[in-house]
């Protein structure tokens, strides 16, 4: 009886974890550059004192869906969308290098170029700082940033930095708790000259809201089934106790 109850209990618990993943995906359906998390369930052998005679269910995330999201034209010179495979390099909160597809950029009062999450955008020599004041900014397909200083004539365009674009391979990437991606093996990815960006556009989330809604309904049904199994276990245990009393 305890095995029956244990399997149902662990299944219900893991169902709640799977529901949290789908809910997070759905919440980021409008987040630029977001990659949906995937989940899978499997049975795990329970080891401990005595023989390994029981199993439990476990939900795990084997990775993220790296399919490209839709390209949305914005017309902003500081918006960039990575074409095909590749990543923008940014600086994480701990100072390490991380990677994202969110390309809605801006610069603060000091000229520091950051993305929509206020993460500094990395160049070949560290975080990119634009020389203020600026009248016009352009970002080329290879990530080179050109500016026209305030007061300069229209033909004056100066190259000031280049956004670090990398492509280590999606199978080498993993998402961190801050939502940024890093190399599984650690370290920094080298610049890839073949990665290109489209200026005046951003990549949208690759989350399919309909798919996530259907997944959430399915998980909730499974959770209800596990709860019913626990109730059935309780009823069977009560009936067994009554029989023992009669005998």
TrEMBL record:
Could you tell me what this protein is called? Flagellar basal-body rod protein FlgF
Matching entries from InterPro entries are given as:
Flag_bb_rod_N, Flagellar_basal_body_rod_CS, Flagellar_FlgE/F/G, Flg_bb/hook_C_dom, FlgE/F/G-like, FlgF, LlgE_F_G-like_D1
Q: Which UniProt keywords apply?
A: Bacterial flagellum, Cell projection, Cilium, Flagellum
> What region holds the Flagellar basal-body/hook protein C-terminal domain?
199-243
Could you tell me where this protein is found in the cell? Bacterial flagellum basal body
Q: Which SUPFAM superfamilies match?
A: Flagellar hook protein flgE
Assembly notes = The basal body constitutes a major portion of the flagellar organelle and consists of five rings (E,L,P,S, and M) mounted on a central rod. The rod consists of about 26 subunits of FlgG in the distal portion, and FlgB, FlgC and FlgF are thought to build up the proximal portion of the rod with about 6 subunits each.
Give the Flagellar hook protein FlgE/F/G-like D1 domain ranges: 81-147
Instruction: Record the organism.
Output: Shewanella litoralis
Does Heme show up as a keyword for this record? no
Keyword DNA-binding on this protein? Answer: no
Boundaries of every Flagellar basal body rod protein N-terminal domain copy: 5-35
The UniProt similarity line reads:
Belongs to the flagella basal body rod proteins family.
